[in-house]
Amino acid sequence: MNDFIKAEFGKTLENFQRMSADAALASQIEQAVALCVDALKAGRKILFAGNGGSAADAQHWAGELVSRFYYDRPGLPAIALTTDTSILTAIGNDYGYDYTFARQIEALGQEGDVFVAISTSGRSKNIMRALEACEAKGVRVIGFTGEHGGDMKDRCDICFRVPSNETPRVQEGHEFIGHLLCALIESEMFPR
C-alpha cells in the first residue's frame, strides 16, 4: 500500500511539473479569463457541464463564482447544467442522455455566453452535442480534456488538455486550472 501511495504522489507531481513548464498553458489561462470576463461585463453568463467527477467540477466552479472564492464580492452569473434532476431526467427520457446539456444550452444559452465543457476523454457524446448547440447559439466554449483532446480539441475556442491519459491525473489538473480561472475571474471583475 505504501508503494502505491508513493507512486500516486509521484504521478501527480510529474503531471503538475509538466503543466507548470508549459508556457502555452499560462497563455491559455489568460485567454480563458479574458473570454469569461468579457462575457460577464457584457451581461452574459458562464455555463458549466460534465459527467461524473466532471459534473462535480461543474457544480463546484459555478458555486465558486456565484458565491465567492478568495473574498467577499457580488455574485457572478454562473450555472451548472448538471444539477436539476427534473430537467436532466425529462431530457434523458424525452430525447436521450446525449441531449442532456444541448437542450439546456438551447433553452438557457445566449450569444456571448461562455460554456465550460468538461470531458476527460474529450469524447463524451452529451458534451459533443452541447458543443453543436453552442455553435448554433453563438456561445463561446472553453474545453477541459486529457492529453489527446478527443473530438473536443478542435471544437473549442480554448481547450485545456491536461498532459495525462489517466483519468485521476486529468481530473486533478482540471481542478487546479478551474480554481485558477475562478480566482482570476474574481480578481478581474472585482479588484481589491
From TrEMBL:
GO terms for biological process: carbohydrate metabolic process; D-glycero-D-manno-heptose 7-phosphate biosynthetic process. It catalyses: 2 D-sedoheptulose 7-phosphate = D-glycero-alpha-D-manno-heptose 7-phosphate + D-glycero-beta-D-manno-heptose 7-phosphate. SUPFAM superfamilies: SIS domain (SSF53697). InterPro entries: GmhA/DiaA (IPR035461), Phosphoheptose_Isoase (IPR004515), SIS_dom (IPR001347), SIS_dom_sf (IPR046348), SIS_GmhA/DiaA_subfam (IPR050099). Keywords: Carbohydrate metabolism, Cytoplasm, Isomerase, Metal-binding, Zinc. Its cofactor is Zn(2+). GO terms for molecular function: carbohydrate derivative binding; D-sedoheptulose 7-phosphate isomerase activity; zinc ion binding. Signal peptide: none annotated. Binds 1 zinc ion per subunit. Pfam families: SIS_2. Homotetramer. The reaction produces a racemic mixture of D-glycero-alpha-D-manno-heptose 7-phosphate and D-glycero-beta-D-manno-heptose 7-phosphate. This is Phosphoheptose isomerase. The lineage of its organism: Bacteria, Pseudomonadati, Pseudomonadota, Gammaproteobacteria, Lysobacterales.
